[in-house]
Amino acid sequence: MDISVNNVVADSVVLQQAKVGQEAQMTLLKKALDLQSSATLQLIQSAMPTPQLATEGTLGTQVNTYA
């Protein structure tokens, strides 16, 4: 087994380049997931509008509770 300084340096450079590539891919994946989650949230909110609560009258404005 021939271990030379040049081989060690070359392997180190290759590993560093692979690490940088993986970090770039992870950053891109995180951004894509963030975009997808915000689009999904907008879709859900548009499909299910928030009902308006009653502000006047007796129906829906009072709660009767008994213990």
Which structural traits does this protein have?
YjfB family protein; YjfB_motility; 64% helix; 67 residues; rod-shaped; mainly alpha
Shape: rod-shaped
Let me know the average pLDDT.
87
Largest sheet: none
Assembly level: single chain
The proportion of residues forming helix, as a percent range, comes to 55-70%
Task: Report the portion of residues in β strands.
Answer: under 5%
**Which parts are unreliable, with pLDDT below 50 for 5 consecutive residues or more?**
none
Protein name: YjfB family protein
What does this protein structure show overall?
The chain is an all-alpha fold and 67 residues long. The chain has one helix and no strands. It has one helix spanning 5-47. It is rod-shaped.
Summarize the entry for a quick read.
This is YjfB family protein. This protein has one helix spanning 5-47.
Secondary structure layout:
Layout: H1 5-47
